[in-house]
């Protein structure tokens, strides 16, 4: 279980999260909805250990998180993968698509090679795209690479923050199917943040509206 307890986040004087508690269960898809600006992405960043809250605690399978971002313990950090809405903001524009997919494997000292090809195939990227750089592929193709990168270290939790909002219907359906297949195979827990109620209805087996989290 990925659990956030009594999380408070402030940006300057603005309180973005006020003692919010939230759980992502393994093996299921937890949907999180709510109006723009209510704090969903902030919660996603806390749950993926990218943002240190001002107060509150996060535990990953019962293990407390004591450090955040690059300083978080590697085995905790790699248990959780975050997929953002805008792939162009989430990649290094100098890398090739293959290098983007293999980044976490390289950081873990594991050669990408065959695994990169397998991951690319899983998300529907053809081989000819692997040597291109981000400006030479579409948003949908780049988001496919980001999903492959997120799956590369087999995380226990996947946080999808408006993962398909920018994409056409067929790419959206494919990436949701990829995430679901990964969950079925590994028992990972998924957090699906989306404004799209129809998608939420199809995808999530438990839906939480942000206002339910506010005291
Ligand atoms: N880096 C930042 N600095 C200052 N304020 C921020 C920062 N990031 C977010 N905020 C503010 O914190 C609040 C919560 O933002 P957040 O992005 O978490 O909301 P959200 O629910 O994900 O919104 P959306 O659905 O539009 O993506 C908003 O009022 C936002 O303006």
From TrEMBL:
PROSITE patterns: ABC_TRANSPORTER_2
Molecular function GO labels: ATP binding; ATP hydrolysis activity
Keywords: ATP-binding, Nucleotide-binding, Transport
One example of a Gene Ontology biological process annotation: transmembrane transport
Domain ABC transporter: 2-214
Highest taxon in the source lineage: Bacteria
InterPro entries the UniProt entry points to: AAA+_ATPase (IPR003593), ABC_transp_ATP-bind (IPR050319), ABC_transporter-like_ATP-bd (IPR003439), P-loop_NTPase (IPR027417)
Protein family per UniProt: Belongs to the ABC transporter superfamily.
Protein name per UniProt: ABC transporter, ATP-binding protein
Organism: Streptosporangium roseum (strain ATCC 12428 / DSM 43021 / JCM 3005 / KCTC 9067 / NCIMB 10171 / NRRL 2505 / NI 9100)
